[in-house]
Amino acid sequence: MEKLVRLITMAPLFLQMLLVSFPFAFAGHDYGQALTKGILFFEAQRSGYLPSNQRVKWRADSGLHDGKASGVDLVGGYYDAGDNVKFGLPMAFTITMMSWSIVEYGKQMAANGELGHAMEAVKWGTDYLIKAHPHPYVLYGEVGDGNTDHFCWQRPEDMTTDRRAYKIDPSNPGSDLAGETAAAMAAASIVFRRSNPSYANELLTHAQQLFEFGDKYRGKYDSSITVAQKYYRSYSGYADELLWAAAWLYQATNNQHYLSYLGNNGQSLGGTGWSMTEFGWDAKYAGVQVLVAKMLMQGKGGRYASVFQQYQQKAEFFMCSCLGKGTKNIQKTPGGLLYRQPWNNMQFVTSASFLVTVYSDYLASAGKNLNCAAGSVSPSGLISFAKSQVI
């Protein structure tokens, strides 16, 4: 049951992230329509009081007492999948990736008439994350319990299952949850910087507080919110999320403090050490390495340039592994699809393809190629590979 539910949620989630990275139609494929459907999926997952412009008409208000027993308003956000649980870690990662997609490809979304819907999808998530962070050192990371929820298949409008809320705080830390939520808030602040600067500032304040919280009080969130272990256990630990948050906070602020954090902690937190072959809601290192490589190619490395080169080497290890041109390549199916694991494999396919796509853009802007053990690959070669994963 748990595997089925996560399959339902993660594949469309990452597929939507991928679609926005490509021209909207090629070789007879209508990616504009797929983008529209992908964003619509998130409207079907909404919890709380639904707006008048809700396009999924068979949904109605739900979860209207979430958080009440804990004295906090946790109405809103997104249900995880076919269940009615609100899991904070994957929800925050969803918001981070949606925001990154808009930052990189907002113009293409606008050309397809979907930028407004995409920004609404981000804000639906960040409005909830703001509620979930009522104090600088308190963050609610789950509403509902999968162990009881999955025994009862109910419409969210009719649910009678336990809606207990679970939090992290200094006594029960969760640096991975705090770090991912900080990354989501920071990335979203970039999305709203021009259209809603006051909201962007609010998001940034929360992001900075959450990063400080996660860095100061360290620990894995699923050791504090133990009911999440069966569903979204933090296998990679929290170090990747701290670097991920710092990278997004630097993108959002240009504050040298966050650049220094990436430079000073690259080795101790694994950013320059881990050679990754996956990227997803749990393991963020490849995403961090791509963002830091971008900073380096933009000439922002400064006195940390040598450290950032190590990040970039790991980013390129990931790219070469995906393309089958590295020293440790990701397995592929006979048809050429990336094959990371037996179930829920598409989350890795689509997230990897997204990273390959943005990295091709960064290389193109810098006038560089990808250098792998099996040869050099141009930015257009990276794009061709990414397309091969969805055609």
TrEMBL record:
Pfam families: Glyco_hydro_9. Its EC number is 3.2.1.4. The keyword Signal applies. GO terms for molecular function: cellulase activity. GO terms for biological process: cellulose catabolic process. InterPro entries: 6-hairpin_glycosidase_sf, 6hp_glycosidase-like_sf, Glyco_hydro_9. This is cellulase. Keywords: Carbohydrate metabolism, Cellulose degradation, Glycosidase, Hydrolase, Polysaccharide degradation, Signal. Residues 31-390 form the Glycoside hydrolase family domain. Belongs to the glycosyl hydrolase 9 (cellulase E) family. Residues 1-27 form the signal peptide. The keyword Glycoprotein does not apply. It catalyses: Endohydrolysis of (1->4)-beta-D-glucosidic linkages in cellulose, lichenin and cereal beta-D-glucans.
